[in-house]
Design brief:
Elements lengths: L6 E7 L1 H14 L4 E7 L6 H10 L5 H9 L8 H8 L13 H13 L2 H12 L4 E4 L6 E6 L4 E3 L1 H5 L11 E7 L6 H9 L2 E4 L4 H9 L4 H7 L3 E5 L14 H12 L5 E5 L5 H9 L18 E5 L24 H9 L3
Parallel strand pairs: 1-2, 1-7, 2-3, 7-8, 8-9, 9-10
Antiparallel strand pairs: 4-5, 4-6
Helix pairs in contact: 1-3, 1-13, 5-6, 8-10
């Protein structure tokens, strides 16, 4: 009897956007679908940045988030997921550190490599799928802005500092030194039936993967359909004034292929939350995509907005989004495409 090969969904990105998508997909998974996540390795802020500087290993924050998102350690074992997410909010040395980050660094120390650490953490958390670093090379993310200024470091790109004008458009993104795609990441891209980019910070989370040498060419070789989920809000320092079309065009510029599907939220955003974003000089992404003009992409518009406002954990020093996509609505829409 012929056994039908499961469809392979691959998510690429980092941070809370990828966590949201993976969390929803895990709950909608069937035996007919395999799930993998490729995450960036250029994070340099918060607990992750401190551990990266002190130990010299790959940044573990995005890897940890993906592992927890795919963890089946729930109900009676939910304490494991909570442990990996717990952030200290006191203590001179531990304040701001995430327990999951510390555990991954400890596992890397014990086992000798980040990939083996991820493998063992996956067993502990009973991860449903695979979490793959896009590269095993130590890198710094670098961006050039329209005014000619150069910003080095993911955290500096993500949160403008030293008087930097966050309204300046990013014109070029690269890594120093250059990094090469990991074998596991290349295999996952080439074998995928559906590749999901976003949501998440366009340059510091999503495209930070694509500028790794070999990723763009692997995406071009892959027969998998490419899906891009447009962010809900602009990001000061990265995408100020960039419309939905602008986001899609940047994805196409760096991947050298237009997304087969573009998902855009149509649900109205709460005015109270919009007021908070406005103070940060961040605004809803304008949906200016002309369906007829973008014949290469099928536009999927729906109410993908989650209802609740996000409360940042105590001890987290990084700026976080206040609203997010609804993980289940995204997952159902994604699975419908295969």
């Amino acid at each position: 009897m012929h056994v039908k090969k499961p469809k392979h969904i691959l998510c690429m990105g980092g941070g809370t956007g990828t966590y949201t998508v993976l969390s929803g997909l895990k709950k909608q998974m069937t035996e007919q679908v395999d799930l993998s996540a490729i995450v960036s390795v250029s994070d340099s802020g918060g607990s992750t940045g401190r551990l990266r500087d002190e130990f010299g290993y790959l940044p573990v924050g995005d890897l940890r988030m993906a592992l927890v998102a795919l963890s089946e350690a729930e109900n009676g074992d939910d304490v494991l997921r909570k442990l990996f997410l717990h952030r200290f909010n006191k203590g001179k040395g531990l304040d701001g550190h995430n327990v999951g980050n510390l555990l991954l660094v400890a596992l890397t120390d014990i086992l000798g490599s980040e990939e083996r650490a991820i493998e063992h953490a996956s067993k502990v958390l009973r991860v449903k799928g695979n979490v793959i670093p896009v590269s095993t090379d130590a890198v710094t993310l670098v961006a050039q802005c329209a005014d000619g200024s150069v910003v080095k470091g993911e955290s500096s790109i993500d949160e403008p500092r030293h008087g930097r004008d966050g309204t300046q458009k990013i014109t070029k993104l690269w890594l120093e030194p250059s990094a090469h795609i990991s074998d596991n990441a290349q295999e996952a891209i080439e074998d995928a039936d559906l590749i999901v980019l976003g949501p998440g910070d366009l340059y510091s989370s999503v495209l930070a993967n694509v500028v790794v040498d070999g990723v763009s060419s692997a995406l071009q070789r892959s027969k998998g359909k490419l899906v891009y989920i447009v962010n809900l809000m602009s990001k000061y320092g990265q995408t100020h004034g960039l419309t939905a079309k602008g986001h899609v065009d940047e994805i196409a510029r760096y991947t050298n292929r237009f997304p087969d599907y573009v998902m855009i939220n149509t649900a109205p955003l709460p005015s109270a939350i919009l007021g908070k974003y406005k103070k940060q000089k961040e605004f809803p992404i304008e949906d200016d995509i002309d369906t007829n003009a973008h014949k290469n992409s099928k536009i999927l518009r729906d109410g993908f907005l989650a209802k609740e406002e996000i409360v940042k954990p105590s001890g987290d020093i990084l700026k976080r989004s206040l609203i997010r996509h609804d993980s289940i609505k995204l997952a159902r829409a994604i699975i419908s495409l295969i």
